[in-house]
Amino acid sequence: MRIMIVDDEVIIRTGLAKVIKWNELGLELLEPAASAEEALRRIPEERPNILLTDIRMTGKTGLQLAEEAKQILPDLEVIILSGYDDFTYTQKAIRQGVSDYLLKTSRPEEIIKTVLLAKQRIEEKWALSSQDLFKNKEARNRLFERLVIEGDASVPGTGNATAYLPKLFSGERGGEDAFLVMLVAAEGWNDSPASEALLLFAVENMLGDLFCCESLIQRQRVVMAVRATDWSTDDMRRQFAFQKIERLLKCELFVAAGLRVDRPDKLHESYEAADEAFGYKALSGDKLCFYEDIAKRKGGKTVCTYEEELELSSIMLDDDPVALKGWTMEFMRQLLADPEVTRKSLEAAVQSVVIAAHRWLERVLESTGHADKIEETAGELRGRLAEFSKEALFQYLYSVMKLYHQKLGEGPAAHVQKAMAYIEENLENDVSLPQVAKHVHLHPNHLSEIFKKETGMTFVDFVARQKIRRAMQILAVSPAKISEVAAKVGYEDVKYFGQIFKKYTGKTPSEYREDAALSDGANKG
Fold first, then answer.
1. Spans of all domains in the chain
2. Beta-carbon count within 10 A of 373 CB
3. 427-525, superfamily in CATH?
4. Which of these ranges, 71-85, 164-178, 326-340, has the smallest mean pLDDT?
5. How confident is the model at residue 273 (pLDDT cuts 50, 70, 90)?
6. Is the pLDDT of residue 341 over 50?
7. Is the pLDDT of residue 51 over 90?
8. Which of 103, 62, 59 is nearest to 81 (CA)?
9. Does the fold of domain 427-525 match that of domain 137-294?
10. Which side of the chain, N or C, has fewer Cβ within a 10 Å radius?
């Protein structure tokens, strides 16, 4: 049984939510609503059994909420809370079908008692209707949810739930039984929650008219269970039925079909399979997705390649949102075009891009003397990627890019830091002063002057130092040839690389590698 609290005063609604342990009363506390309008948007989908609402709120009053909410859920129990001990309000509340009336100053015990009385009245109604449950949509929804979504066919006080879902289980059944769960999403009306909820209700009603099915709206989609024996394998029939809904309601549908099962108590398995298929909504170019099809997929690309990471790093260093958008769209397009792509492989590939962006951020912060800000920036970015879509990935990468460039600020130091970051990202090339000056939009002589002033070393020395530092990192962990290491840091002449390396480290590349290996072995020992 569910309860929703509605109050435009945050202290009141959060206080009521926390002071009383609703779960111990056998009640599921829904997220409190901050206004009557918000409650009315959510009620059709969340379907509370008890409404505990303030009487005076900004916008619609609690009495208006009670009247409109009971039009949506006739059996809803409404309890009014008010700071006004006014008999007129009490009379109005009674006329609106409100169950009880309490002052906000009421003690928690009084509120609990009133709520428990409302709960008792609801349970009595359920008991009276248990002999004819199939006529009661609310009761059927509860049974459907328990059987299909939760996987429990036993309902206390009623026996077996299947007996009370007549569209699914009644009538003559010849041959073998088969059942199927489908999840239907609808889009095309405006983006307001109220419109989305209304569209789903319209779709559910049409599904009920077109098919002999049991259904329920859950998580912004219609959960639909049908007798699979009544559905031929002819896709045209299914497509025609859904096209009719799209045409009449001027919307677009996406349908995910689960596994066919041979017993009612397996409907939950079909639902879970349909839920898995539903996850391919963003991946599928079709409006109808069968679990049997996606279950065969082996998985697509899971990592961002070295070349892709280099290109991404260059774009982010240039602070170019247009190029970043294009890169992101192309990366995601290639992933989604793969017929073997799965949700897991897509998530892994996107996550590898996120990691690449973080690596870039750490590198440039370290190279510009901001290593102390790595933890701080990591904290700012944590949890921002909420979904694995094109737009979500772009927004995340954009936030990483802007976080870096905004932290650099303006002035000579900013030019030097940008130059240092550019050098760090291009150590495999022959980085020259004119090349870097062009990137930061300064004359080479001016860059050389402010570079020495800000860093205490010449441009040439800084580049060489960074190249050798990178070479040291590679030598310590990689078995690559010395010539290969030299090439990775922009030195074509191996002999010259060795001379520069010894100048900065006092050792040859081979000696450094041997010492690093010995040190690593000693640490492990």
1. 2-130, 137-294, 297-408, 427-525
2. 18
3. Homeodomain-like (1.10.10.60)
4. 164-178
5. very high
6. yes
7. yes
8. 103
9. no
10. C
Query: 2-130 adopts what CATH topology?
Result: Rossmann fold (3.40.50)
Let me know how long the chain is.
Answer: 525
- DSSP 8-state code for residue 131: G
Q: Which two tokens stand for residue 248?
A: 């009449």
Give me 268's structure tokens.
């939950």
DSSP H or E segment with residue 18: helix 10-19
What are the distances in angstroms from CA 151 to CA 147, 161, 166, 377? Answer: 5, 11, 18, 44
Q: Which residues of 180-210 are buried (b: 16+ CB within 10 A; e: fewer)?
A: bbbbbbbeebeeeeeebbebbbbbbebbeee
- In angstroms, the CA 315 to CA 323 distance is 6
Q: Report d(CA 443, CA 419) in Å as an integer.
A: 12
- CB of 114 within 8 A of CB of 20? no
Q: At what angle do helices 343-367 and 390-408 cross, to 10 degrees?
A: 10
For β-strands 100-103 and 154-155, DSSP reports them as unpaired
What superfamily does domain 137-294 belong to in CATH? Answer: Reverse transcriptase/Diguanylate cyclase domain (3.30.70.270)
SS3 of residue 227 by DSSP: strand
Put the strands of the sheet holding 252-257 in their side by side order.
213-217, 222-227, 179-187, 252-257, 288-290
